[in-house]
Amino acid sequence: MKIDAEKIKQLRKSTGAGFLDCKKALEENNGDVEKAAEFLRKKGIANAVKKMSREANQGIIEAYIHPGAQLGVMVEINCETDFVARTAEFKELAHEIAMHIAIADPKYVKSEDIPEDVLKKEKEIYAEQMKNSGKPANVIDKIVEGKINKFYKEVCLLEQQYARDNSITIHDLIKSFIAKLGENITVRRFARFKIGEE
């Protein structure tokens, strides 16, 4: 099947994938651009998962000041090479994450960063709330576990729904850029400053 060059161009623009990958994806999906994009995404995400175990020691620090200059964010985003760190796509991701942090106000990068005493306190509060519910202990444990998972989604950057598209998490957004750029990408740390807040 001959693939129209315009379709390849369109697919490359929407996915960031290479020419040959786009051509192959279109051939596999009978020239359907949407199905080809989905095919590439599945393939890319599978490859991205493998790349997530690699060292990421390069990167950039992105600063974002919200209009009105009352709120600002600094975030360190790491990748494997300084070549990728200088690309427009990597800078775009860093900017999107900094903006998301300004809007969503996460407290930690990932759930493993939450101090044990904070987690213990949350579990105690949820257990106390359920104490007089009359439910059996095993049911209360499951409810507490569910509330803890919800807590992670509220306070952990990687588990939050992406502010621009709540069908994906920040973790999913990063995975899509790993697939696009071919390197592991991590958020190392961030700081959020708001006038009048400690």
TrEMBL record:
SUPFAM superfamilies: Elongation factor Ts (EF-Ts), dimerisation domain (SSF54713), UBA-like (SSF46934). Associates with the EF-Tu.GDP complex and induces the exchange of GDP to GTP. It remains bound to the aminoacyl-tRNA.EF-Tu.GTP complex up to the GTP hydrolysis stage on the ribosome. CDD domains: UBA_EF-Ts. Residues 81-84 are annotated as: Involved in Mg(2+) ion dislocation from EF-Tu. The gene is tsf. It is found in: Cytoplasm. PROSITE patterns: EF_TS_1 (PS01126), EF_TS_2 (PS01127). GO terms for cellular component: cytoplasm. PANTHER family: ELONGATION FACTOR TS, ELONGATION FACTOR TS, MITOCHONDRIAL. Belongs to the EF-Ts family. Residues 54-197 form the Translation elongation factor EFTs/EF1B dimerisation domain. The keyword Lyase does not apply. It comes from candidate division TA06 bacterium. This is Elongation factor Ts. Keywords: Cytoplasm, Elongation factor, Protein biosynthesis. One of its GO terms (molecular function) is translation elongation factor activity.
